[in-house]
Fold:
Amino acid sequence: MMESKDLIRLIYNSIGIMTPFLLAAIGGLFTELAGILNIALEGLILIGAFFSVIFVAFTDSLFYGILLGILASMVVALIFGIVSLYLRANIFVSGLATNLFASGITIVLAFHFFGTKGNIIFKNVPKLPRFSSAFFQKIPIIGDTLVGQNILVYLSWLIVVIAIIIIYKTPYGFRLRGIGLNPGVISSLGFDLRKYRLSAILISGFTCGLAGAFLTIDLGAFVPNVSAGRGWIALVAIYLGNRNPLGIVIASFVFGFAESISNYMQGAVNVPTDFVLAFPYLVTVLAMIFYSIWRHAKEE
Amino acid sequence: MNIKIKKTNDLIVNTLGLAITLGISIIIAIILIFILSEEPRRTIYYFFIGPFANKYYFGNMLDAAMPLIFTGIGISIAFKSSVFNLGGEGQVYSGALVATIVCLALSHANGFIGGFLALLSAFFVGALLGGLSGLFKMKWDTNELISSFLISNAVILIVNYFITGPLDDPKNYLLATYAIPFQYHLPKILLPSNLNMGIVFAILTAFLGYFLMFYSHWGYEMKMCGLNREFSRYGGIKVSNYYILPMFLSGALHGLAGGVSVLGTYHMCIKEFSFGMGWNGIAVALIARNNPLGVLLSALFFAYLNAGAKAAMINSDVTFELVNVVQSVIFYLVTAQAIYDIIRYKIKRD
Structure:
């Protein structure tokens, strides 16, 4: 059976794995609060993943490379936003368009610049710095699982804190939540709904870009369609987290844990890889169904 | 009289809007080719003329339209009822696998009976996958858009397991199952291309879908639910049925797309062969404004783009995924209301 050392390892891994879910879901929370079902998260993650690893390789700088990767993701988010809000396209369809665009353009550019549609490996991309602090170490029981994660993990926690402040403590956050609850009221107060929604979409572009960077930088490589459904799972995390940041943290951890277990099974038990890969999706869809049953029961 | 004028006006606006959308996508295709290709003129030639170069390319283009007709109608039925089926990819793929399994299991049965059973199973496996999301939606208000997508993604991986695991034929050099027995192959139409009787099934399905949607009681109730569920409830329609039924039919048509592709075109289930059929079905339905007969044309257009990209890839120096970028432009613009408003405004002013 599993020992406590293994369990700590499992949780440590989960905290790493949950990071892209968490980042994408926190960004997606802004759009969700503004009344937009943002299915473009998936594509935005992919764009961030592709461009951040390439720009890190070209600029030889983690900071500038990731920044440019985020910028690329925000540019695509801007296109998505303009088409949906100003050209008034159906938001699901333009979200799908964004995902299709992301998966197409990354492969086209990879083929054009690197001559391959497979994995692109960069030798000069450094690993993300890891961070150890005595402060985390002192926390009982879970301390060991929090220490030594890479810098983006801690950054994602900081982003959660900032998101909580923005959403609950600023006029911007109040208005954004108001739009989701009753757009008519906010617009009758003289605020331009589209600007608020566009800003929320751009925020989701920012966090998804970072989520993408997390996927490729430590790997030092771009793998086609590396986002692998994470944007969709993040979307479910927003619902399961009851549309609030702390709930999203918990939901993301659950999905991180599910994936971490499936990685563990791959090594420990003789289960076909495809089943192992399907496991996070099954967990997600089951979680979603249980959540809606629970909510349904509560309403009645 | 006024109503008639409004109708013709709408038709003009829609057609013009669509022409603008498709025109922009073609212009973007040309710009991309000029940026990406070393020999842009050759690439453009193959991209646009390639599909008509000979019987082989032309027949294959028509054959590629066949599954898109099925998936396009499947999506239209769902959209008309205002439910979203984003699980198309997995539904097509699992339909293909199940049809293959039935054919392999009945290796000595009569071609008609066995083939019919194979397609029936493909129909029902797709229907089951789609219908599940409809059921969850009806019972607990689970978002069908996300649930269908997630179920589909899990199913794709499980299908992959069967193709590369227990059903993998070690003798072929593909990641593919054993080939289905000869008696199940649908007759070819335009040799040497892959075009086969499946296209006839697809066209018949389009007419059937048209009849169902516009001239049947079911179709009427489904459309009413799509327009306004509360109103339909007051009108005495049992609205809860119209979450499951559209998803069920939508999934079923996707399953058929996979099944007919195996019996008609591929004669085995090849890993990832159906990728894109589900997503493209959505674009095909949107371009056709959810009209099954319109789907025939828009599926052909999408097949043309795909065939062009394939010809350009084989004969020149661009990669096939270029077409995904072009298709995403169509996706972006096809529902953009602003385009239609501008046209309406121009027409009114003149």
